Structures are given as C-alpha cells and as structure tokens.
Amino acid sequence: MTVQRTWRRWSGWLFVAPYLVLFGAFIILPLVYGLGLSFFRWEMLSPAPAKFVGLDNYREALFGAGSEYFRKALWATFRFVAMTAPLNVCLSLLIAVGVNAVAGRRQALYRAGFFVPTLVSIGVAGILWRWFFNSEFGLFNAYLAPLGWKVPWLTDSVWAMKSVVFMTLWWTVGGPMVIFLAGLQHIPRHYYEAASIDGAGALRRFVHITLPQLRPILLFVSVMEIIGSFQVFGQTFMVTRGGPDFSTRVLVQYIYETAFTHYRMGYGAAMSWLLFCCIAVFSVIQFRLMRER
Amino acid sequence: MSGILGLRVVFVLAMLLLAAGCGLSERGKTTVRFWNGFTGPDGRTMLQMVKKFNAANPDVHVLMQRMDWSTYYNKLFVAGVGERAPEVFVIHADNLERFMQARFIRSIDDLLAGPGGIAEEEFVPKVWSACEKDGLHYAVPLDVHIMGMYYNKALFRQAGIVDAAGVPTPPRTRAQFLEAARRLARDTNGDGLNDQWGFVFTWYRINLMGLMAQWGGSLFSDDGARCTLGASPNIEALQFCSDLVRREHIAPPPENFDAWVGFRQGKVGMVFEGVWMLADLRRQSDMDYGFAPLPTLGEAPATWTGAHTLCLRDGLSGKELDAAWRFVRFLSENALDWAEGGQIPARQSQLESERFRAMEAQRTFASQMPHIVFSPRVPFIFEFLSEFDSAVEKALRESASPEQALADAERRVNITIERQRAMLEEARGAK
Q1: Which of A234, A264, A285, B161 has the most neighbouring CB atoms within 10 Å?
Q2: Tally of helices (H runs) and strands (E runs) in chain B
Q3: Mean pLDDT, chain A, as a whole number?
Q4: Burial class (CB in 10 A: 0-12, 13-18, 19+), B216
C-alpha cells in the first residue's frame, strides 16, 4: 500500500526527470549565472579581475555611456517585432485557412510547400536572400527592372528592416501555419453546416466560428511570435550585419557583439536581462488581453 | 552459445582493426592544428602549401581549419582563453595587440635565434615592428597586403584618358584623379542620372585610413592614450570623400550601389582595394583592368596596409613546438607561393627575388612600401573599428557632417580607453 502511494507520488517526477536535468543544466543554470554575472564588471580582455559593481551595468545601458546604442538596438528590435509578429500571425492564419480548404492529397503538398523554408538553416537562408536582395544583380531587382524600379533593399536604412521582415516572413510562416491548420481541423464541421443553413456567408463563418474556436491557438501563436521576434538575431546578422548605419542592429546582435567581440561579459549579461524583462512584460500583457472577454 | 562466441570474436577482431587503423595514422606523427580565415581562393593556395609540407615532413600532420574572418577572432579568442587554442594560427597584424594582451601567444625570439631560426633582418621593418611588444616578438609575418588602385582600362580608353600612344594613364595626383573621375562619370542611358562612375568606395575602412594618412592625420596620440579621430586632417580627408559623392557626383551614393561588384561589372573606372583582390579579378576573363599605386589625393603619398602573421600557442614544448615551428618556418620560406595568389611577401630576400619581380601586379602594389600605414595598434581595436566604420558611413550617407561624425566616434572611443585604463590601473594596484 505504502509502496504504491510512494510510487504514485514520485512516478511523475521520474518521467519528467530527463527533461528537468537538461532544462536545469542548459536553461535555469545559465539564466541564474547570467543574472549573477550582470552585477559584475568582467571584461575578458582586461587583466583586471571581475568585480562586483551592483547595478552599474544596468545603469550604463539605460542612462550611461552605452544608452545611445542600447536604445538604438532596442528601437530596431521593437520595429522588427511590430512588423513581424502581426504580419506573421495574420499571414500564417490566412495560408492555413486556404490550405485547409484544399481537399485530399494536394493539401499535404501545399502544407509541405509552405513549411519547407522553416527547415532551411538561417545560414543558408541568409546567404540566399542576400543574393536575392542584391541591388545590382539580385533576383528581385531583375524582376523589377522592366518597370524601371531599382530598390535599395539592404543598402538604404529606410528599406533594410523591411527587407529583413520580408525574409523572416518567408522563413518562419510555415511554423504557425501548421499549428493553425491543426486547430482548424479540430473545429467540428457541423458548426459550419449549421451556420450555412442559417444563411451565414464565408466571412461571417470565419469571424463567428473560426476565430472564436481558434482563440487559444491564436493566443499561443501570438505569444510565441512576439517572444521569438524579440530574440531575432540570425536574420539581421546574416543578411545585413546590423547595417546600414546600425539601423538593423537588433538587441541580441548588440549583446552578442558586446559579449563575444568586445568581451564585456557583465554588461552583455545585464542587457540580456533587460531584454528578458521586455519579453516578460509583453507576454503578461498579451495573456491578460486574451483572457478577458 | 556458439553464436555469442562468434559475435565476440568478430567484436574483438573489429576492435583490433580499429586500434591498428588508429595506430597507422597516429603513431609517431605530431598533429599540428592550423587555423585561419582563408575561405576564398587564398584558401586553396594555402591548402596546397599545407599538403606540400605534410608530404615533405612525414613525422608531422598539419590539420588546417578555415573559418570566415567575421567570426574567426571570436572563436580563436574563446579557444585561447579556454586554453584550447590551435598550435598555429593566423592573426592580422592590427589584431595582434589585443591577442598579445590576452597572453596566449608564444614569443618567438628564442626560436628565431635558435638553430632552425630566421634572421630578423629578413623581415620588412615596418611589419616586423608590428609583431613586437615590450621587446619581444610574437609572430612571423607571412605577407604585407597593401592597398593600391585598380582601374578599368576599357573605360579609360573610352573617356580618352590615354597618353600619345593610346595607353591608359592612371592618375598620380589629386588634380589628375578628379579630372579622370569627372570624365569617367556619365549618364549612359539618358535618364539624366549618372550610371557610370569615376570612383567608388569599396571598403570604407581601408579607403579612409589610407586617405586620412595622406592628409597627415593620425587616429591616436603617439602613446595611444587618446583617440584623435576628430582632428582636422581627418575631417578634411573625410570631407573630400563625402564631396566625391555629394558634390561632384563622381562616386555613387552608398545607399544604392554594390561597390566591388559594380567595378567588376564595368560600371566604375577606379577603386582602391587590397592586393588580395587580384585573385578575384583574375577569375574574370572579360575585364581589361590595370593597377597602379594609390594616387596622392592629400598632401603626401600614403596607403593602408595589413599583414597576415603566423602565431604559436603559448605553452608549446618538445615535439609539438618543434613541429609547429618547422611548419611556420616552411610557410615563411615559401611565401612566394603564397604571393602568387595575390599577396606580397614580408621577407626582403623574397621581395628582391627574380620570381617576385616577375609578378607585375604584386610588384606594383609593393612599390608603395615606403608609404604604408597600418590600422592603429590598440587592444580595443574592434571597438575602435566599429566606431570608425560607423563615422565614415554616416558622413558618406550625409546623415552627419564629417566633423560631427568623427567627433562623436572620438568621444565614444575615448570612453572605452578611459574604462580600460581605469581597469588596468586597478589591476596594477591589486598586485
């Protein structure tokens, strides 16, 4: 009897143990270590040993000598999130509805087609799109040439971020699309049938059946999109290197440069935690918004 | 039962074979890991040299690993600080200071003076002094890659920039340069905008470092304690460059032009680029290009240069040290093979050799040797270069005046200097 009870109490932990070990070793531990690091001044290049400096690193990023670049990087990140997250959610939902309407085998084909770019590594995708975007002999400008247009995709600070967003949509739209598709296929068919009998058109069915039914999935996808977009790095690093004139240098790239090019570990860790706070705040707001009503 | 026995026999045999296989490649051979960033055509040249060395030295196995320069130093630094640096690695001369400060490069003076040594007088003095810190030398220079001018001969002929015999004449002075560039820049399709250019900035950093030196500017005070980027000669040089784009319209605005590709496509008459670009131009058979020393646009001739240097990991000893040093010496002694691919050797005897004299392009670039300047020697080189690049870019894009852009960069670099100085003093005080 007691053996059984002990087993019942602990078996759950036993099952999650492998994950917990990895989660602890590679997520929690570095997180805590990073938090500790952010209160130290530790520059690997300098012979001076690490020193506890309290909130100095945070102060430098927010108000001090580094604030100019920190704010610029934060602003670039916000611009990316504000463009990418909503566009990606809408576009993937749209594609999912479209693909869902296709019957039979062809649906699998379309689903795979939209999902394939997600499988391409960012290194490959980045190089590919850098060629597409090249203003002299790139694919896009070759198509636009007959119209007499020549777009400075990556070389003008007005265009560069939009180009990165464009590329990101291509690269990431497949993931949420598949999730939406799964959600769509779980909506009972008779809801639609009943609505049709009542005379509801396609748009009304979408607004009054599909959207409410998809709400939990919509919440999940938007939260993941926002979190993911805040952490953007690969796209800007591979395609624009943060240029021109730092207009696409997002926060993660700036943190990377601070820590691994300039070797200012403590300062880099502090900025990482500021980014973490940003993401946390937005996630909480989003959960609140979606839970009400 | 017999089945299990059979399996065991197979297993043991397999293990024996495996062991024998390992032994064949490993026994008696010293492995030397060699890291560099030669991912272009230069990598093929280097691979040939490594193969040649391995064939001639059966007791050593050199394993070359190439990675992109843009992430190379991050990896090397982390490996070095973690005491896992490769035995031999390449460092650009302007990065040496930071790596010497990180203390995982071995000084080589004892090896130079030893039985298998190299005479110090062999090396070009300016390059050799770039490898020195506090009286010790930390690297063997492999090459000196100097910036010069490439020009498109076909465009020159078209624009009539030729001598009496019809041979294109590259400009030597500021007046000649401006004259040539104005004649080269024109509107070929009649839309009222220039689409063929006299000149283009291909790599802001080296273009401007070379030109600022021509105006007599320096980037740091002599002791390296203050950044002097905002000094008036530097502003004048940058103003001149900005005018080429904004006032003269002989260089394309950077917002909408792929510079080096534009030159290769025959849309630009002149560029200032490193000798290493030869390899790229040689692969293009339909382009009639020439090369010349940098014209003097400022007060006096000067041009930018860099150098690849060969370094050894600190703490090497015995067979490993011997093998690594033999490899470094081999590369240095055979630097003319390396030079063939579009480089200039760093050893006097090689520069004076018949074989090098026959390399016309490399020799032309090398003729600027008396006027070369390196990137500044400071440990915070990456912070500085990032600011420098950004300032030049701002000025050429006209998002800031040259004066403002350089003053801002100077201020930020000085903050870095101040921070590092304070830490250094603290470290000294602690001792």
Answers
A1: A264
A2: 19, 13
A3: 90
A4: middle
What is the widest separation between alpha-carbon atoms in chain B?
97
Q: Which two tokens stand for residue B217?
A: 């500017």
Does B423 contact A134 at a Cβ distance shorter than 8 Å? no
Q: Which amino acid is at B405?
A: A
Q: Provide the strand spans (E) within chain A.
A: 40-41, 51-52
Quick check: B108 pLDDT over 70? yes
Residue at B416: amino acid letter: T
Q: Is A26 on the interface with B (CB under 8 A)?
A: no
Confidence of residue A255 (pLDDT cuts 50, 70, 90): very high
Span B130-180, pLDDT tens digits: 899 889 999 999 999 999 999 999 999 999 999 999 999 999 999 999 999
Among candidate residues B331, B329, B336, B349, the one with its CA nearest the CA of residue B116: B329
Separation of alpha carbons B264 and B286, rounded Å: 10
Query: How many Cβ pairs closer than 8 A exist between chain A and B?
Result: 77
Predicted local distance difference test score (pLDDT) of residue B390: 92
**ipTM at complex level:** 0.80
Question: How far apart, in whole angstroms, are the C-alpha atoms of residue A156 and residue B397?
Answer: 9
Q: Suggest the residue from B71, B72, B73, B74 to mutate for an interface test with chain A (most A CBs closer than 10 A).
A: B74
What is the value of pTM for the model shown? 0.85
Q: Which of A250-254, B8-12, B371-375 shows the lowest per-residue confidence on average (mean pLDDT)?
A: B8-12
d(CA B112, CA B318): 16
Collect all residues of chain B within an 8 Å Cβ-Cβ radius of residue A136.
257-258, 261-262, 265
Cα separation, B334 vs B332, in Å, equals 5
Indicate the average pLDDT of chain B.
89
CB burial of residue B217 (10 Å; 0-12, 13-18, 19+): buried
Neighboring chain B residues of A260 at a CB cutoff of 8 Å: 74, 78
d(CA B149, CA B170): 9
Nearest alpha-carbon partner for A224 in A283, A174, A170: A283
CB < 8 Å to A41, chain B: 423
Residue scoring higher pLDDT (B246 or B256): B246
3-state secondary structure of A172: helix
Amino acid identity of residue A15, one-letter, is: F
Residues of chain A neighbouring B412 (CB-CB closer than 8 A): 65
Do A48 and B430 make contact, defined as CB atoms within 8 angstroms? Answer: yes
List residues of chain B with CB under 8 Å from any CB of chain A.
70, 73-74, 77-78, 81, 98, 101-102, 254-258, 261-262, 265, 379-380, 382-383, 386, 390, 393-394, 397, 399, 412, 415, 420, 423-424, 426-427, 430
Q: Is A131 on the interface with B (CB under 8 A)?
A: no
Predicted confidence (pLDDT) per residue in B274-290, tens digit: 999 998 898 888 889 99
Instruction: Please give the backbone phi and psi of residue B273, each rounded to the nearest 5 degrees, phi first.
Output: -145, 170
* Cβ separation B256–A137 shorter than 8 A: no
Query: What is the 8-class DSSP label of residue A248?
Result: T
pLDDT in tens, B341-383: 999 999 999 999 999 999 999 999 999 999 999 999 888 888 8
Residue A1 has pLDDT above 80, yes or no: no
